[in-house]
Amino acid sequence: MTKQEFLLQLNRALTDLPQEEIEERLTFYSEMIDDRIEEGLSEAEVIEGIGDPQDVAAQIKADFAPNKENKEPKKGKHKWHWGPWEIVLLILAAPFILSVGSGVLGSVISVYASVWATIISLWACVAALWGVAVGGIIAGLGMIFTGAAIPGLAVIALAIFSAGFSIFMFFAAHLAGKWTVILTKKFFVWLIGKFKHRGEE
Q1: Average pLDDT taken over every residue of the chain
Q2: Contact between residue 30 and residue 7 where contact means Cβ atoms under 8 Å apart
Q3: Distance (Å, whole) CA 109 – CA 112
């Protein structure tokens, strides 16, 4: 068997392996055959000393399987291990962390409560404006019926203005409440996602 015949049969027998691995093995045996020939052996003797291409291929596949398993990264959950110095530092820093954390949390809650207080105030303004509008119209009609037509019309005009302004305030309060709820929901979804992500690491 010649060198080319050996390499051709070996190539066919290794078709299950990745092309990169096949080329690496063919290059290895080609150079090995050339080196043996330079040492004084004939091509046939070198091929006979290597063995049957099918047997060589079977050995290569057997060697490749465990190597492939070793190359694949092992999947598993990463567990954080606390060292003694880290535990000591955590205990010493706990009062500072708790005080700063409680301060930040209190500030966030205060801001959030202020936002909702503003929204509630907007709704209260809407209700007050509608009350002024209804009361103004009733008062204006009463003044017209009692003979004070001009003051009555002026009161009715102010009542209509209050009603129009209350519509504007209604949309402002509605949008403020809606977006506050949406942003709050997104924040909690993001926060829960962060905790889940850290738990899976």
Answers
A1: 81
A2: yes
A3: 5
